[in-house]
Amino acid sequence: MSGDAARHDGGKSAFDPSDDHSRIGSDEAGKGPVLGPMVAAAVRARPGAVPEDVDDSKRLSVGKRESIAAALRGCEAVAVGVAILPTDRIDDPETDMNSLTVAGHVEAVAAVATEGDSVVADAGDVDAARFARRVADGVSGVGPPVEVHAEHGADATDPIVAAASIVAKVERDARIDGLNPEYPDHGPVGSGYPSDPETRAFLRRYVGDTGELPECARASWSTADDVLAAAKQSSLSEF
Questions:
Q1: Which helix (H) or strand (E) element contains residue 174?
Q2: Is 185 found in the same domain as 120?
Q3: Does residue 111 have a pLDDT over 90?
Q4: Among residues 15, 43, 119, 139, which is most buried (max CB within 10 A)?
């Protein structure tokens, strides 16, 4: 990408409450779970077009998140892009989570971007400027050139990034809920996070009965290794 089209910034926030031009916010959900996909979302809108009660998705109730996500998707002044990164892609030994996070943001942003758009991304790398650069370069490879700014915690400070975080979280949760009918004899699957007792119990039951991981599990995660090792030792209660 040449010129200013790939400008990126890891410093001061790009959000200006007085700016009424359409911008794009991007965020992801599900980097750490042992079950299910990671989901990235991008929302393109004017700041005034998003609901006033948007916030970091982690601060909102399930019902509030779902209500806001439905409002965003139903608003003609808002464009929503979603990228789904399934478990087989996450388990690919040729990639890593930083690269996957970039790829998710790229795919979601490219789905809604127009040339010259300004993007604010919740930084998925300890180096926010590097993350911004990688996302800008990635979007330019598949879509129109955009300007990208990335910052840590942008979902708590920028309403359009918060909107993207809500869309990503609701989509991720829906896909996890959709797993339950696939495992009627071993579910519920829980939230999919390693710290969730329900998720760990699901894995114990499934591996105990079948001797292998369910297809929805990220086989490359240490939690998956732990449950398989416990099964081999015939002591799943230790997992």
A1: helix 159-177
A2: no
A3: yes
A4: 43
